Amino acid sequence: MVDEAPWLVVGLGNPGREYAGNRHNVGFMVADLLASRVGAKFGRAKRAQTEVAEGRLGFGGPKLVLLKPLTYMNLSGTPVVSLAQFFKVPVANVIAVHDELDVPFGQIRAKRGGGEGGHNGLRSMSKSLASKEYARVRFGIGRPPGRQDPADYVLSDFSAVERKELDFLVDRAADVAEAIVVEGVEWAQNRYHGT
What we know:
CATH superfamily: Peptidyl-tRNA hydrolase
Function: Hydrolyzes ribosome-free peptidyl-tRNAs (with 1 or more amino acids incorporated), which drop off the ribosome during protein synthesis, or as a result of ribosome stalling.
CATH class: Alpha Beta
Subcellular location: Cytoplasm
GO molecular function: peptidyl-tRNA hydrolase activity; tRNA binding
Site (Stabilizes the basic form of H active site to accept a proton): 99
Oligomer: single chain
Structural class: alpha/beta
EC number: 3.1.1.29
Radius of gyration: 15 Å
Helix content: 25-40%
């Protein structure tokens, strides 16, 4: 197993303290949890505008390269492709963890490929990787209330009610990412989509 290609798990978000609690930054939250699970710490990558952590899932398990781009969301693809090339990660072993307007809050969905649904981080990744066939962990944030602009909504913090569930959901999203690595997207869908 040690010789297998590593997995690149990309937590999408925006750098900076002012964005830390935003719905758009849930990818960073999941990446931080995955790093703590594998006993890794994020450090600045010299070659790419990103923070990187490396570890293994379990003893002798698959290698994980965790990435938090330090570019803004719409430029995420550049550091992703740079790290994918550096670590020799095939597109099939790339997982994007991101907020998803089209999934209700409280639900986590796994999928491979497909459109970007207006998500600038995914659009940038697809363009830079020249492929849409990477896996995604879609963290449901639901649609904005009333007439609120979706761009404003994703850049706002989770509500007090949502924050009560947030730690559990970040934990669940990390579980889904690990399941994709170990068992595959289809298995993760069967295991987690009903819950």
